[in-house]
User: Fold these one by one.
Assistant:
Number 1:
Amino acid sequence: MQGRPRFSQWSGFVYTLGQMAPEFPSLGVEKEFAQLTGDAVHGGLVEATELRRVLEDPENRYLGRRLCWVFTAQNMEAFSVTPRSDADLARMVEMISTSGSEEAVHVIVGQAVPASADSPCARSGLPTVAADQLFAFSIDEFTGALSDAILGEPSNQPTGETSPNSNEGSQAHSGARQETRPQLQAVARDLFKRLTARADNRGMTDEHRALNYVALRYPQLYHATAQALRDGKVFIGADASLLQSASRRIVSVSLTFRHRHTDITERYYCLVDVTEVFPFLASRLQPSFG
């Protein structure tokens, strides 16, 4: 029996989706916050709305640097995030989720850095990541932007994203008009989940970084899936595998479909270069004949 594919080791780069939240690393930091809020901390707990309100004040920015910002992916604490600048810290404060909704998605692109002995997260034992890019959106915002693009309608794209209304995907627009926006949103939501919501996907291996990258930055996958469903095909799954290369780290991301009536299986793939902190598309989506 063939075992599960072996994923590559962590290269130190991160391209991950999940939830980031600040934690009090010590009693002293907690008490300092309590003084700023009139003793609003109860048993070490504080409402996110109150925490965000306090940290958004520039005069209280010093407290944000003393918090431990923990990033959780797939219900597992993956790493701590350290801001490179006050601008990064301000962005991290903006990303504090005040609704508690699992629909909110935080994205971190960055790389591991050595943790100093006096780091707020030193006791956590988690690796430390310096973020080069941080942004957040809701699932509804993301799927709405994709469905509007397929239908050829204007849409506001989530912060940090490129528009999915690309020339490459425009060929699917005319055929998509027979479907409703909610149907297309359902297709986008399902594919987004299959690409990113894997039990061990913390965005730290080459394969998972590639899957997360295409889920966010390559809308042609969604166009292709919508077209396949219109053609009577069933989406089977998505896979990623690291290819052997002497100079670059290349991951093949594939989508597999099966026709409902003929049971013929079709596979499409694209290549993603994950050699550096920012992945990029090395080849566009194309059929696989192997």
Note: The radius of gyration is 21 Å.
Number 2:
Amino acid sequence: MFGKRLCLIIAFGLLFAWTEASWAQSDQYTQLPRSVIEERLRQFAGKDPERETTLRKIFEEAGCRGNRLHEQPVTHADAPNVICTLPGRSDKVIVVGAHFDYVDNGEGVVDNWSGASLLPSLYQSLNSEMRQHTFVFIGFSDEEEGFIGSRYYAGQLTEEQVASIEAMIDIDTLGLGPTEIWESNSNPELVKLMNGIALSMKLPVTAMNVDGIGDSDGSSFKQRHVPTITLHSVTLETLGILHTSRDSFAAIKLDDYYSSYNLIAAYLATLDKK
């Protein structure tokens, strides 16, 4: 997560006095059972190429198959990017991304199978109705080696394609606790919307800024001037779990992980309406 050297600075969480009515559309998604979310999280085994195969299989099980699902070969990467597209009424795009690779220490469940395995569930949750935007869910390869997968994807986009992307949601390292926002590295309007939805759903979210030498896949899109938001769960207390043998399924707080799934699904549904 965020590269291999990190510096953490805690920022105050932002809460906005939005009314329940303002966010009435945030529940317009199909809520999957917790057992499904957990079962997909448990499929973390294997090296990066095996994980890519597993992620593609979960996408197919979630209903993303045929011409909606494809692999994007990435130069100098161990595995291709996995791309699932949910067509919408317009050509405006919302990208939702998470890397599936991990470092050799530990099992890489937190960083970042927790994000990658959630992508098919988010697709399945939004596929319950026709959306205004086209959603593109991407499992990125080789984030830990310098964001190779996301830089390749963002770099090959034409200016016209970049202009069509209204937001990129970067999911990296969930389940260590409640949802956190890397606020200092995220678009203010996207942060504002997330805080409002969390307040209306009575789910916790705060700002936990991660600034330093490291970075995340979202920056590959920021370099193309795409509005981004990075969601994670890291705190000063849990930072030491990453890139160590402690990064295992046992490190996941399943209540918080399922809450993060619901919050992100509602966020995407509401973002589509906005």
Note: Residues 4-26 have pLDDT under 50 and may be disordered.
Number 3:
Amino acid sequence: MQQRWVFALPAVLLLFAGSGSADKDRTDVPSKKADTTQKGRPPVNIDAFMREHDTNKDGFLSKDEVPRWLLHNFARLDTNKDGKISKEELTKGMAYLHQRRRPSDVVFVLVEMSDCDECCAEELDRIYTMLRKLDTNKDGKIDATELKAGRTQVIKERVDGLIKDLDTDKDGKISKKEARGQIRAHFAELDTNKDGFVDRDELIAAASAKLSAPKKPASSREK
């Protein structure tokens, strides 16, 4: 019972998360005002970077000279669009010089760094099973429509699990007395029809709600 609660809770609480919406592509798009100090990361030595990659020693980096992982950001670094990157452009675009991790990298970590092949294989097979379920048209790819349908199904299954665990009187809904944890803490917000219960539709609606960026105070928008 406890394990199902742990996995179900994050989906139900999406409505109450405090973070803003994700960037369209977080792997290569820093914020508009990029923090070139990259807090929490060691600073890039621009001079050493230039020496290492400027093979023809002309003081610039061409597409042939930059490392492969940096090619997708070449145009962003080449601010004057002359087809090469100067030391000054590297300095201004330092935020692009860190390889950013993607959520999907977890698969590579499992494959490359596992110290228990049987355990790793089990986890990868779990991922593979989920991907096969998402690929409903069996074309070997997962499109946005399939992902949306899969998300809807996962949310419904988790909500059904929550109700099964918490609904002690088996009336198909959760009372304030039956609620536990974050559901109890946010009971008033979840109970949108104010009938004193949280039902399946209300839980699904909360778990399906999109994260939205927090609104800035009027004073900060005017600056």
Note: The chain has eleven helices and two strands.
